Amino acid sequence: MNILVINCGSSSLKYQLIDMDGENVLAKGLVERIGIEGSIIKHDTTGKERVTIEEPMDDHKRALELVLQVIVDKDHGAINSMEEIGAVGHRVVHGGEEFASSVLITDEVMGALERCIELAPLHNPPNIMGIEACKELMPNTPMVGVFDTAFHQSIPAENYIYPLPYEFYEKYKIRKYGFHGTSHKYVANRAAEILGRDIKDLNIVTCHLGNGSSVTAVQGGKSIDTSMGFTPLEGLAMGTRSGDIDPAIIPFIMDKEGMNFEEVNNVLNKKSGVLGISGVSSDFRDLEVAASEGNERAQLALDVFCNRVTKYIAAYAAQMCRIDALVFTAGIGENSGFIREKVCEGLECLNIIIDKELNDIRGEERILSKNLGGPTILVIPTNEELMIARDTLSLV
Known about the structure:
The chain is an alpha/beta fold. It has 14 helices and 14 strands. It is globular and about 55 Å long. The relative contact order is 0.11.
């Protein structure tokens, strides 16, 4: 079966067409600037040259129309007709407490997604727009929603309840939800495959490190704790997000700077993290270059980031009593040997020892530790699209 995977942002759309018989990518692409002047599709069909389409796209429906056209195009496409698409898998950021697993999309599910908008006002609306556009263009094709939050619904209450008046949880569902769940699930399962062991017997810490970053404790194949919380702002210091801070800082800044809530919220989400500390960039590649040239604030930003990752790994080692595998993934985790080495430097007390020669790689799947009796350290490039396609296949 061929499955089309859709990931809609507010003005972008990523897609992959995957043949699930061999889990081979037939085509993939990126649509940018939907609803903005200069709309463009960059499309790649396996074995053919890239196609670029520059055409106005006022909304997600028009973008998807053009995507489907290029997928079946006789010169540039990957299949002959739309009938060869057996199902569509949609990435949905937030499923709240309503979804602990992927689901076939029904009218009832759409209603639940609408109710979750207040929990993810920036992400869920474009996800919903993508689903509605696909339903209109492909009314007879089954569709599945795969939620970033679903993998973390196994987290026990003592790890997801905040120490606030309990009525806030009862009334507003204020609790830890966690994000990047599809990525954490994929790399944890892949680590078990690489180690040749049943995931039910393993304690794994997965580190999804990118501009947005999170660390998850995976015990027996289930998430039992994760660093992101009610929103993706909690946890690690990130590209532009503050991560964990004393909450009393917020009213203090509002008072001293004369800011309203929207302004301070913008600072915490878009002007903090390593960008805020360094004053250089939110891109870790720029920070590594600046630090190597003697920029002390860039070095401090990297130190803060790595220190936070190390602390979360150590905390999850304590929760699970042991770690069998430590996995690095996503843009930074897959490509920065410097970050991986610095994170592991603080974990030698747990017998987490990285091999510097093995660590000299970018974007490759590899074991980075020698067999010294400690946890196995791995780099595993994430593949959220394949995880979405697998869930979709299992449901349809």
